[in-house]
């Protein structure tokens, strides 16, 4: 390492992250979060989800604005393609979770990022959800993520950065491990 | 009520290393031991287990290995005998068969309750080691016909029913048990979460020889970037023998490797899809260790092959009879439930800095990375006990001075 180098700036407020981590390690209740969304059927397979509030840091919280997300099926499914499919949102969630993690971890490790790009792909055999073959699972066959990263770090350090972002990623954990899901009607 | 200056709880290698230093300083003390000297070495190890560290590393204050096999690995009974001989050699004041049931602060120090009366002491050293099994939260969800065994209760493959075995955990215990059970002809599956991969030998020497020589074992706890993480790292994938056991060697034998056990639902074991990444993390960490050794030694050694990631298996039906028993090699912990002194954090973890707690006169020894990397091994007891004895002696002196000036 050269002396007199300037601190890295990936646009991550690393001080705030470290403060939050130490506050949470002293008061674990602060870490208890609930994420929420609501969804309304529009027409056909088109639905709109709204996300505004969440709970965390011992209090009700809101995003600075309400966000809306349209989901639908493509024209090839005789639908109107008013939005991406729900399963594509899962890819969006994974890619953004891992990429945000890379930026945070790079900042903690004093790695200056210049560009981070990834392509994601998921395979799916529709025979599962269509009920054609009960042995075919509904979900993804597999997911691949390929990163191209330009940063002030060795290839091994970049590999370690990507590995650590998987280790710390909520969406990665949700995809790779089981989650308890309860669906009810009221 | 008998009174002494220091009570040491636990007569394992750490408690005795402490006793040795206290003896050298002529500090009056007693070592209280629930069973016999080296109890867990004699009662809580499987039959084939050998120390992960070579014999020359089996050093204690005033003792070093003098046998004819410095590069060998002691069996658990041999470690037990060694520790007992060590206690006898300096006539350590051990009270065996004395279980400590509570530790409370009191005027001028502590009251130590045992199943055979109370002791009063000015200082206490907790040297109980990690001897308690942590029940895995998923064990309760196994179908009743599947036999469940904690690694701490595992002795040999004959204890397990015929048929397939799922070993949960791929640290030292998990890989060793998987290998030995596989050799009995059973189909073995290992569920691997995060693990620490190391080769037994590198560039012709034992990996621990390199770690010792390159100064890695002397890295101090306070210098760790993330001490909590470093202290909670799983044990190194090692066996006390002249061979490497890792996920590659297990797969070459025919052991099936799957991801971390994430859940059991309706009799289905669910394995995480993170296997590829935990293998990548382990390979990267191994690469950094070997880089450090190469920097010390100069040149570069032959690197192990990357971990082979098998075709991913995400689940198995535990009711179909393919898996008849599960061995939980998911870690052990110390039992401090009897310590009634406010030295625990919000998560119930004993807070200490290098074995010195916030409560004056209360010390702990024998935990991973207590003061340095070496603390994790028997070989660390000597330096840790010396440091803590120094601190403890000055605590006693300070306290004595205060008492004198107050009178």
Q: What does this 3D model show about the protein?
A:
The complex is a heterodimer of chains A (186) and B (407). Chain A is an alpha+beta fold. Helix content of chain A is 30%, strand content 28%. Chain A has two domains: 74 residues, K homology (KH) domain (GMP Synthetase, Chain A, domain 3), CATH 3.30.300; 93 residues, 2-Layer Sandwich (GMP Synthetase, Chain A, domain 3), CATH 3.30.300. Chain A has four helices and six strands; from the N terminus they run αββββαββαα. Chain A is globular, with a radius of gyration of 20 Å. The mean pLDDT of chain A is 93. Chain B is α/β, with parallel strands linked by helices. In chain B, the strands form six sheets. In chain B, strands 1, 2, 3, 4, 5, 6 and 21 form a seven-stranded mixed β-sheet that branches. In chain B, strands 8-19-9-10-15 form a five-stranded parallel β-sheet, covered by helices on one side. At the A-B interface, helix 3 and helix 4 of A face strand 16 and helix 8 of B.
């Amino acid at each position: 390492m050269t002396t007199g180098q300037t601190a890295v700036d990936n646009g991550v407020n690393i001080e705030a992250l470290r403060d939050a981590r130490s506050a949470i390690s002293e008061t674990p209740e602060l870490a208890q979060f609930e994420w929420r969304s609501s969804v309304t059927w529009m027409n056909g397979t088109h639905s709109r989800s709204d996300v505004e509030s969440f709970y965390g840091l011992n209090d009700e919280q809101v995003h600075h604005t309400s966000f809306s997300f349209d989901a639908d099926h493509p024209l090839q499914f005789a639908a109107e393609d008013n939005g991406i499919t729900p399963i594509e949102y899962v890819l969006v969630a994974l890619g953004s979770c891992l990429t945000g993690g890379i930026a945070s971890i790079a900042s903690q490790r004093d790695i200056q990022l210049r560009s981070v790009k990834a392509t994601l792909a998921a395979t799916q055999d529709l025979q599962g959800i269509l009920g054609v073959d009960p042995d075919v699972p509904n979900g993804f066959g597999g997911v691949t993520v390929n990163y191209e990263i330009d940063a002030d770090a060795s290839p091994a350090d970049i590999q370690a950065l990507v590995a650590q972002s998987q280790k710390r990623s909520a969406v990665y954990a949700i995809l790779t491990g089981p989650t308890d899901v309860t669906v009810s009607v009221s | 009520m008998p009174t002494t200056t220091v009570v040491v709880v636990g007569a394992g290698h750490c408690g005795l290393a402490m006793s040795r230093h206290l003896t050298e300083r002529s500090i009056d003390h007693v070592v209280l031991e629930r069973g016999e000297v080296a109890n867990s070495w004699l009662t809580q190890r499987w039959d084939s287990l050998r120390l992960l560290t070579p014999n020359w590393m089996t050093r204690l204050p005033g003792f070093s290995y003098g046998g004819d096999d410095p590069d060998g690995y002691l069996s658990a009974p041999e470690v037990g005998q060694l520790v007992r001989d060590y206690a006898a050699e300096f006539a350590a004041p051990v009270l065996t068969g004395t279980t400590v049931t509570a530790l409370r602060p009191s005027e001028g120090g502590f009251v130590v309750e045992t199943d055979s009366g109370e002791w009063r002491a000015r200082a206490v050293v907790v040297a109980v080691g990690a001897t308690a099994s942590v029940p895995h939260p998923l064990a309760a969800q196994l179908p009743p016909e599947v036999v469940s065994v904690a690694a701490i209760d595992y002795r040999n493959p004959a204890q397990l029913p015929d048929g397939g075995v799922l070993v949960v955990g791929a640290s030292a215990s998990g890989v060793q048990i998987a290998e030995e059970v596989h050799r009995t002809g059973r189909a073995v599956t290992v569920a691997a979460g995060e693990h620490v991969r190391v080769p037994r030998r590198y560039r012709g020497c034992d990996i621990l020889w390199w770690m010792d020589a390159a100064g890695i074992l002397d890295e101090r706890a306070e210098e760790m970037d993330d001490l909590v993480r470093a202290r909670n790292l799983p044990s190194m994938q090692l066996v006390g023998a002249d061979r490497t056991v890792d996920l590659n060697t297990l797969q070459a034998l025919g052991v099936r490797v799957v991801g971390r056990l994430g859940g059991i639902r309706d009799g289905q074991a669910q394995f995480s899809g993170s296997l590829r990444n935990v293998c990548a993390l382990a390979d990267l960490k191994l690469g950094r260790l070997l880089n450090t050794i190469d920097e010390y030694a100069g040149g570069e050694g032959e690197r192990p092959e990357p971990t082979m990631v098998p075709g991913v298996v995400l689940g198995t039906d535990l009711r179909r009879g393919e898996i008849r028993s599960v061995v939980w090699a998911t870690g052990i912990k110390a039992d401090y439930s009897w310590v009634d002194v406010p030295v625990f954090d919000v998560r119930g973890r004993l807070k200490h800095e290098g074995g010195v707690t916030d409560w004056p006169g209360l010390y702990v020894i024998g935990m991973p990375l207590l003061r340095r990397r070496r603390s994790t091994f028997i070989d660390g007891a000597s330096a840790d006990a010396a440091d803590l004895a120094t601190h403890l002696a000055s605590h006693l002196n300070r306290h004595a001075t205060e008492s004198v000036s107050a009178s």
